[in-house]
Amino acid sequence: MLRRSRQITAIAGHAVEVMTGDPLFLVLLLCCGLGMLFFASLPTFVSGEELRLIRDQAMAWCWGGGCIMILFAAELLIAGELRRGNLALIMSEGVSPVSVIAGKWLGLAILTLIFDFCLMIFLLWSTRLGRFGGEAQLIEWWVVGCYLTGMLLPLVGAALYNYFWSGNFSRAASLLMPIVLLLFFIISCLKGSIRFSEFGGGVDWTSVWGILSLLAGHLAFIAFVMVFAFLFSKGGLWAAGIVVFALGLFLKFILTSVLPDGYLQSLLLAVLPEWQIYWISDLLAEHSGGGWKNFLSLACFQMIQAAGLAVLYGSLCRIILQRIEVAGQYEQTR
After folding, report:
1. At 194, phi and psi to the nearest 5?
2. What's the distance, Cα to Cα, between the start and end of the chain in Å?
3. Quick one: which of 62, 100, 33 has its CA closest to 216?
């Protein structure tokens, strides 16, 4: 058991190291952060709905950016390593398929956690930018300065690290980004706060629950994508990922139109990609002032469902990987 745990953590650590070292991970983070800032700074014309509009736009960036990152990571860490023969080499050294699959899933989950944590801070900052109605001319530009500085400093620090110690620029910047962003966000929240109860005035803290729900959705998306990563190469994986993404947007409507309410419909909604349960924008709008216990119970349910999907589709990945291993051994004996 201890040996398998070490194998899983080693594979997961390697996955995080490889993906954070890829410039694409950093580029996606910066694009999502700048996109949120841009849309939060635009003037809005929906009276009373400014905060919800900003929050929904930021959550859409988080959901879409996270899914794109997962597809890129699955192609690099699973499909790419299968194509290069790295997974076959790992398993030839006594690593079981279960350890490989669990390690890859854990690595993708850690990458998603880092990515979503950064975007959660971007989202909270976006709600702070729109505290006066969301109109661009009323934005507090010192907050925008903190926002941009929090994005710029990790790049400067990574550049210095790369220059003096020959480290990986992308990895250093990607791992520094959440730490620096959190620090600057806390600093921006402290300005004007005399008592603890005044900390973070103007920030829509309920948005955290929206990101937690999207994190559970991303973990569920990983389970589906991993199956196709073991089956297809780059083009096939992206095609399958896009189909899964699109199917999850309309699955509930399709099933409710075709099937009557009952166990079969509930079962299919539980095991097939269905993203509407992870999008809680309406719930956030209804309970913007509280109801944290309801949000907590919902987040726990969503995480349990994502874990169940990981076990279910992880078992399918194990069957696929074992078949690949047997086929490879057969080719070697011919």
Report:
1. -90, -45
2. 35
3. 62
Give the Cβ contact number of residue 247 at 10 Å.
15
Radius of gyration of the chain (CA): 22
Token pair of 46 as six digits: 């929906």
Q: Which domain holds residue 141?
A: 2-333
Q: What is the pLDDT of residues 221-238, one digit of tens each?
A: 999 999 999 998 888 999
3-state secondary structure the chain: CHHHHHHHHHHHHHHHHHHHCCHHHHHHHHHHHHHHHHHHHCCCCCCCCHHHHHHHHHHHHHHHHHHHHHHHHHHHHHHHHHHHCHHHHHHHCCCCHHHHHHHHHHHHHHHHHHHHHHHHHHHHHHHHHCCCCCCHHHCCHHHHHHHHHHHHHHHHHHHHHHHHHCCCHHHHHHHHHHHHHHHHHHHHHHCCCCCHHHCCCCCCCCHHHHHHHHHHHHHHHHHHHHHHHHHCCHHHHHHHHHHHHHHHHHHHHHHHHHCCCCHHHHHHHHHCCCCHHHCCHHHHHHCCCCCHHHHHHHHHHHHHHHHHHHHHHHHHHHHHHHHHHHHHHHHHHC
Cβ–Cβ < 8 Å for 177, 151? yes
Contact 91, 201 (CB under 8 A): no
Of residues 208, 164, 201, 222, the one with CA closest to residue 299: 208
Q: How far is Cα 55 from Cα 42, in angstroms, rounded to an integer?
A: 13
Chain centroid offset of residue 152 CA: 22
pLDDT (tens digit, 9 = 90+) per residue, 284-307? 877 655 567 788 888 899 999 999
In contact, 199 and 190? CB cutoff 8 Å: yes
Residue 108 confidence class, pLDDT cut points 50, 70, 90: very high
If one counts the domains in the chain, the total is 1
Give CA–CA dist 178/25, Å, rounded.
13
